[in-house]
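Bench log, entry 3. Co-assembly request; chain sequences pasted below exactly as received.
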Amino acid sequence: MEQEKILEIAVRAGSILLQNGAETYRVEDTIKRICMSYGLECEPFALPTGVFVSVEGQKGFSTICKRITSRTIDLTKIARVNDLSRRIERNRPDYDEVSAELENINKDDFYSATVVTISFALTSFAYTLLFGGGMNDIIAAIAIGAFLGILRFVFSKGSSFPFIQYFISGFASSFLSSLAASLVPANAFVITIGAITNLVPGVALANGIRDLLHGDSVSGLARLGEAFMVVAVIAAGTGIGITLWLWGGSL
Amino acid sequence: MIIHFIKYFALAFIGSIAPAIAINIEKRLLLWAGLGGALGFCVALAFNPYSLSLSIGQIFVGTMVVGIYSELMAKYLKAPSTVFCAPGIFPFVPGIAAYQTMRSLVENNIQEAAVHALNTILKAFTIAFGIMIVTAVFRYIRKIKYSEQPANK
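Structure output for the full assembly:
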């Protein structure tokens, strides 16, 4: 296979990993593994927002720099790219095969929007009950959780940092749960917590730590900072929701 | 007592599986991801079974259990350990403290807000630290193993 094609495949695999929230060292290892399988020396450098790869072959040096503009979290895609890179190492398939496979991985979503929305509702249900909610609380929490799930799909095609989604989600969970608590005997406190737990940036936290410990301090701090920002935005949304409700009640 | 634990085991189990779906974990790993969170939460709960506001020590032990579980399972099931770790920390999220912080801020009670905020931040750091220490130890062990292998051959 030609040098450019190997490089292209490696960068495409790497950018799929980055777009779906893989750790930095996993991205660099995968790119390195793919290039080495075809006998190329390479030097990758990955950040959460972009990846640079330089290879040295018979044609001299070539470099690709790829900017990552949209990011989500999809651990299945990460696992599949990982499997593919190991298969490349063993069998060295040709360009078309790998290219088609990468296309395939990037295409399909693993869980449908309905399933994800149900999972949001389930999370709300579990944490509302865990923090001592009653029957009314649980019903309200399931409804609000499902609403947050729908919000996620409404705003997911925006930027890599869905500020508006987090803000509106925080706002909606506190405002709607206050509303629910005023209509039926329920506890706004547990409903809000149950709904908000859906938005906790667990993957950013876990991967930020792993990056930091691996020595990728730039990526690690960036991820932890992002997790912190997410929490701050949700908190602001929640606070404004409570304020508005109290203000409306005092009118 | 046992029913109490079964109830919270089941809740933490659902509470770990559902976020796992939201971050697109493969179907074959879902149950295992849920088990990690449930195990960690029950171990943490065992120190003080009837209080649901987990103390810092409980959170530390619980997240360490989750961390050890995810590193072992990552090796056993051949998957990234984030798959088990990220859903597993959900039951420890200090939701109550975070809500109380915002509530006191809204009521313009800054002193109480400061106390709750510190509580929230410390608990969040404890979650991070519990995972971190386990990851660091496992990475250290792996490094020693790898550096010894060529010498054995």
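The first helix of chain A runs from residue 3 to 19. Chain A has ten helices and three strands.
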